[in-house]
Amino acid sequence: MGGIAFTFAIALIGYGLAQVPGFDHVGPLASAIIIAIVYRQIFGYPEAIRPGIQFSAKKLLRLAIILYGLKLNIDVIIHQGLGLLVRDVGSIVLSIFLTVFIAKWLKADSSLSLLLGIGTGVCGAAAIAAVSPILKAKDEDTAIGVGIIALVGTLFAITYTILRPFIGLTSVQYGIWSGVSLHELAHVALAAAPAGQDALAIGLLAKLGRVFLLVPLSFILMYWMKRRKKEQSAAKIEFPWFLIGFVVLSFFGSYVLGKHLFVSEDVMNHIANLTTFVLTMAMVGLGLNVSLKDLRTKALRPLIAISITSVVLSLLTFIAV
Prior knowledge:
The structure is a single chain. The protein starts with a helix and ends with a helix. 80% of the residues lie in helices and 0% in strands. The chain is mainly α.
């Protein structure tokens, strides 16, 4: 219990830090990871409470991904967002393959770069957290990936808001551009909200289409990992059962909560806040595994790769809009 309480406390501090100017654009997840990394460098890993910390990093992470399914309204995507899904598929494919290609060219860490490509293409931290168990990624790589995605995504979202008055897009076009190219739901909201409700609505719809595509992408990655394991060894790939929970809650939220149980928007907001907090606790557990020495040696080249990919993605989607 001590480890869980520890991650809970750091997550609360992360939420407080996210209210400070500057950090308010970064968000609680990245803020909590920063605190956890700093704690690790100063005080070391709290071995006495390791089991509880690992519980947060593993079990609570999966719980957060399952709850994240409630944010995805499949009904809206099917009826209004099918055209956007084509753009979303293009964004995901481009992000993953271009990041991996640039990373290989730069001789960057391949595991971390793949996580960043998936995070850029799909839905930032949530996507990285969801595919990490499938890819057998190190906790350290997951935490570093989440931190980088938060940093780059925030910088791009702010840049979008600065450029908006000068680029000549309608509010709907600008919303599509934001939703198809930016990294996380929070980044899309940050960039699109100043352009009005129409821009925000279409931007979030486009972004939710990318979240929807996390499920088929995860199964593609499972197949790919099984193929690799057959070539390398007979090691077994665990089925990501938490993704089934994600899908079930997506359907439950789309077709039951809204249509039959009539759960208020207030309650759904509370659930969304709980989901973010649980995910923040998990990020604390992951952040404690980060060594700054390794961060210096591993993160720079993947950061360059994701930055180049993000620029290319922004330019191509802008032209396509």
